[in-house]
Amino acid sequence: MPNAPDPAQIAELKNVVSLALEEAKxxxxxxxxxxxxxxxxxxxxxxxxxxDTVEYQRDRGVAVTVYFGKRKGSASTADLSAKAVRxxxxxxxxxxxYTAEDACAGLxxxxxxxxxxxxxxxxxxxxxxxxxxxxxxxxxxxxxxDVDARxxxxxxxxxxxxxxxRVYGNSHGFLAGFASTSHSLSCVLLAQEGEDMxxxxxxxSARDAAELQDxxxxxxxxxxxxxxxxxxxxxxxxxxxxxxAPELARGFFGHFVAAVRGGAQYRKSSFLLDAxxxxxxxxxxxxxxxxxxxxxxxSSPFDDEGxxxxxxxxxxxGVLQGYVLGSYSARKLxxxxxxxxxxxxxxxxxxxxxxxxxxxxxxxxxxxLFVTELMGQGVNPVTGDYSRGASGFWVExxxxxxxVHEITIAGNLxxxxxxxxxxxxxxxxxxxxRTGSVLLSEMTIAGE
Length: 448
Fold this sequence. Notes:
By secondary structure, this protein is of the alpha+beta class. The chain has helices at residues 7-26, 82-96, 130-145, 215-227, 246-259, 262-266, 327-332, 358-365, 413-418; strands spanning 31-47, 50-68, 71-77, 151-170, 175-193, 196-206, 238-244, 286-289, 312-316, 319-320, 347-350, 355-356, 368-375, 385-396, 399-412, 420-424, 433-434, 438-446. The chain has 2 domains: 7-227, PmbA/TldD superfamily (PmbA/TldD fold, 2-Layer Sandwich); 238-446, no CATH class. It is 23% helix and 37% strand.
């Protein structure tokens, strides 16, 4: 991996994009957009001290979309040569002649495009060679296995580093690009006591490798999480408070984001259909999107259409302020893009005055289930019905008393969001949604 950003890579990709735009213009396209990228990385996995995999990755490609009026055609290639780029534009143009007209098709409106591209410090290459990567993975796994003799097996420790360079341009005159990196360390261990065997994991991810959690600490955390699950049992069917761990709360709120995306709204396939302006969460809950946090994993100066990303309030005092839109879905709904083509950018879920540390959350719950793992895909995005396999810990009088497994938790997301009691201060920042643990007043637990 290179030690510093290479401006020549961005310049090369800008030339590729410019060539494609010019070719589309000569072919009579009324509009065109082009996305070119180069990605390379290294990943390795060690299991029980032995090297399992060492992989180098190097990808490149260009995607072209042309519009002839309201007819759209797209094509892509992994070959960045001038001939291949011209051929790709030709193929996209041919496809456009056979597609039906779509009144909402087209580029983002020119006034929405990013004018100034801030440096968000997303590019931090890691000069990591395979030998060093293997050594880190071995050390991570060994630190975990050394915690306790009951740690008898491992699914491995992994180290990964990736660097992506992307340039986007369109026929409105937009042409910009940036480089970004992502690095991760992870470990999965198995603990055994008699016939009982339990598995758990831990990981760290960051733009800057210097900000990764210590590799030995990751191994020890994975070990502790696996050990604490030993001795798990089922519980009887009942209704009780539920608390999701931060890494699961991120997915819990991810269902909310999916429900307020423009595509789900205009297709009328959302349990939060036409919910803008409605109270959908308790008054103390706020959702704030912050796309320009330096080094954050979901930061971006512009979205997949070149639209400027901006701070926005998605939920204020529990009231949904709007939807998550790209330009196409915005037009379908008669609205304006929110700069979310390609996804959400650093959604901060907060609860001022209702944020508690972990111990305080347990005390607030009193008796209930702390969920640390979910299984299955039992979520209906249209009705909001929610039913998933789960495991975690039973809590009594505000203290964890017993690991629990082989149960199912069920409810309806629309009501579950209204049933939020408090959020945790233990915020997980390893994804596009930043949230702590979340406590719900009640769900159905199906057990014995």
